[in-house]
Amino acid sequence: MNITTLYEDEDFLVIDKPAGIVVNKSITTTNLQTVQEWAEKKLDISGNKQADISDFYNRGGIVHRLDKETSGILIIAKNVKAFDAIQKQFKDRFVKKTYIALAHGKITPETGEINVPVGRLPWSRKQFGIFPGGRESKTLYKVLMFFLDKTTKEQLTLVELHPQSGRTHQIRVHLKYIGHPIFSDFLYAGRKTARRDRKVLERVFLHASNISFMHPVTGKEVSFESPLPKELKEFLQTLTKA
After folding, report:
1. Strand ranges for the chain from DSSP E
2. How far apart are CA 241 and CA 156, in angstroms?
3. What is the reported pLDDT for 233?
4. Model pLDDT, residue 135
5. What is the rounded distance in angstroms from the CA atom of residue 164 to the CA atom of residue 232?
6. Is 65:24 a contact under the CB 8 Å cutoff?
7. Which of 6, 11, 150, 193 meets the CB 3.0–4.6 Å disulfide criterion with 82?
8. Could you give the residue numbers annotated as active site?
9. 10 Å Cβ neighbour count for 111?
């Protein structure tokens, strides 16, 4: 498995996850390689007998999640103390995360906040949506650049997003809610649009580009950055700046 390590010390490592790799093991990933299996082998840990001590063992040290097709920064703790400390920062919303996405349409205003509840759709185990029974969710955004797709003549928006909560599919659902689903998003862009998008880009255009949090031992703020992967950069080069 080709995974780049951006940083490593005695307590945690930060990796650059490629798109297309599942993060955690489950009953549906039997025949797939996962980041968790990679981490368990690298850190020589297993969850069987020590799972009751900390979720660290059940999750192979992986503190948080990224969707399969989302690339970018992922934190993996190397011991129970670091795992619990960093995970608490996520729960207390001390961790600052930045994502880059390419969305359909022209997003206006160019800075804003999306604050609507997100929850799993009752009729679909794989999809989430906006409804009153969902969990409180907030995403801040800032437009970086507008593009024009020369083939479809559609405007597209490169946007920076800062989720203030950590709901599953939050960014994807929030952008769909404001009428600007992510390019190539097979779950939320609509079947016809996603099928057209995937002829030119075979993954969701969503990348976890930055993360900042407090070091679990020293207490000092640490920050890490991951540039857009090659396939996303190359796709942007096929578009015209608007």
Report:
1. 4-8, 12-17, 71-77, 96-104, 111-115, 118-120, 128-130, 138-148, 155-163, 206-214, 221-225, 240-241
2. 9
3. 98
4. 87
5. 25
6. yes
7. 11
8. 67
9. 12
Contact 35, 240 (CB under 8 A): no
Dist. CA 116–CA 163, nearest whole Å: 12
What is the predicted pLDDT for the residue at 33? 86
Query: What are the Cα distances from residue 113, in Å, to 29, 52, 68, 119, 157?
Result: 35, 39, 26, 18, 16
- What type of residue is 190? G
Whole-angstrom distance, CA of residue 122 vs CA of residue 223? 38
Are 201 and 183 in contact, with CB atoms under 8 Å apart? yes
Q: What CA–CA distance (Å, rounded) separates 148 from 238? A: 10
Residue 201, Cα to own-chain centre: how many angstroms? Answer: 18
User: How far is the CA of 20 from the CAs of 23, 33, 78, 142, 228, in angstroms?
Assistant: 10, 10, 24, 26, 15
Averages of pLDDT over each 10 residues, the chain, 242 residues? 92 97 79 90 74 79 95 97 96 96 98 94 81 90 97 96 94 97 96 96 98 97 97 97 90
User: Ramachandran region of residue 61, left (φ > 0), alpha (ψ -120 to 50) or beta?
Assistant: left
- Sequential DSSP letters for 197-225: HTTT-SS--EEEEEEEEE-TTT--EEEEE
Burial of 231 (0-12, 13-18, 19+ CB in 10 A): middle
Cis peptide before 109 (omega within 30 of 0): yes
At 53 the pLDDT is 66
| pLDDT for position 48 | 53
**Angle in degrees, CA 53, 168, 95, rounded to 5:** 65
